[in-house]
Amino acid sequence: MRIALHKTCLSTLVAVVLLAVIAPADAEQAEALYQAECAACHGETRLGGIGPALLPGNLSRLTPEAAEAVIRHGRPASQMPAFGETLDDAAIATLAEWIYRPPVVEPRWTQQDILASQVVAHPDGSLPDVPLFDADPLNLFIVVETGDHHASLLDGDTFERIHRFETRYALHGGPKYTPDGRHVFFGSRDGWITKYDIYNMEVVAEVRAGINMRNIAVSADGRYVMAANYLPHSLVLFDAHNLDLMKVYPVVGEDGESSRVSAVYAAPPRGSFIAALKDLEEVWEIPWPLPTEPVVSTGHMATPLEKRRGHDTPNFQVRRIPVPDYLDDFFFDLEYDHVIGASRGGQGGMVVNLDSGEKVADLPLEGMPHLGSGITWEHEGRRVMATPHLTRAAVSIIDMTDWTVIKTLETDGPGFFMRSHANSPYVWVDVFFGPNRDRVHIIDKASLEIVETLIPAPGKTAAHVEFDRYGEKLLLSVWEEEGAVIVYDGDTLEEEQRIPMSKPSGKYNVWNKTRYEEGTSH
Ligand code: DHE
């Protein structure tokens, strides 16, 4: 299996450049230091333990300078101690440099490792079925706080914090709810899947699916969880009840070449998981069993299917859909007929029909469209989709009936996340990168113009919005260590409340996610 340590983000690139200029540390000395000071928590082979994995691919979000600071000062609200008083500067620098080096022995994560990692604190069905709080269980928000690796459960009507709990290190991607909204699954970059019982405010089960994971998806009936990994090159299927391992899918092409998985999503109208692959020109579709009895109603997206669409692939088997390019970042139309993908080079996109496998359109989108953040709405009788770009100060708006770009809006810098709600007249897009990262643009869905630019906290990154179930109020993150979540009125755009949080990233409303509401991520 080919294990590639791909450098996809800026901080990793910085790490690589620094490695080239720092005098190489003595490997043996570094290894000995690591074993003496770090291995007890981070694992003898750097795969992680109480602490996160310390491998180059897992450290892509951390600059070497930040790694040095963490070693020196520790991490507040975690078990990471400050080594500044026991190690001298040279030893700290040696360790900080060494953890970005690829390990001599290729890291492995086998089926046995997955099985051995599973912890079931409260077996499914063992906790009470009634929420321990009064809030509307369908209007709750989960807020991920990446500063000190916690998550908060917020009442979506009063915005009071109901519970705050520790999460695994570096959660990434949206947490995924069961259709009744009772349970939520989190995925961490280190491969951990955590199942949390919202009603009882308890972590009920955990399992580690891989070493470097992208994201997870939950089937529309809430019975299965699929994990997408970069390392190893695999998809891993679990029974959602207690996170029991069901199947490991090595991601290998017909020619034997293996691939990282870009991401996996549930496609409820197809009754299947759809995974895009980063190093193979294929999309994989893996069907889950069609329900034999009515499922809990969760809006139009979970209507039980009567028959499989476009194929007769047996349950849990892989249907390979060849595509004309590698898919990095992608999105679906409302019916899940098409996948809209960005090409690996980030200089364009394409639309592929998931039934026929044919490319139906090219998208002339330069500057790394961030299609994973795309949203859609109805505009003058047509469905349009909009996407920010990661390397271009623009938002592109596309007519989904003929896949033409109907408008390119200039912004104050490249953005990361877009959000709206079926009941809101506005789309919110952040300016995530560059000097204007404290700005958020508000686009009018009817005129397709930017009508307002907010600066909620001057000099501080403002990003990622999520609406409440009614589309009336919304939450925006001040994405800083000593940050906050701001509550806005969705119509007047007035700030109503500021809740202090530790580098809050994504916010996820139970109703919007379980109903697959328009304007939010799924
Ligand atoms: Fe993400 C979602 C990929 C960097 C924060 N990000 C996703 C998803 C994908 C993705 C495929 C959808 C998964 C899902 O929700 O199930 N992200 C990538 C990248 O390829 C990229 C550019 C590089 C990488 O390092 O992986 C990347 N992402 C980042 C960040 O740097 C962010 C800003 C900070 C962080 O915590 O890593 C970041 N990504 C997020 C968040 C979501 C996300 C908060 C969920 C958004 C949502 O609203 O659903």
UniProtKB/TrEMBL annotation:
Listed Pfam families: Cytochrom_D1, Cytochrome_CBB3
Domain Cytochrome c: residue ranges: 25-103
Keyword Cell division: no
Keywords linked to the UniProt accession: Heme, Iron, Metal-binding, Signal
Signal peptide per UniProt: 1-27
GO molecular function: electron transfer activity; heme binding; metal ion binding
InterPro entries found in the cross-reference section: Cyt_c-like_dom (IPR009056), Cyt_c-like_dom_sf (IPR036909), Cyt_cd1_C_sf (IPR003143), Haem_d1_sf (IPR011048), Host-pathogen_enzymatic-act (IPR051200)
Protein's UniProt keywords contain Signal: yes
Xref: PANTHER family: DIHYDRO-HEME D1 DEHYDROGENASE (PTHR47197:SF3), PROTEIN NIRF (PTHR47197)
Name of this protein: Cytochrome C oxidase Cbb3
Organism this protein belongs to: Halomonas nitroreducens
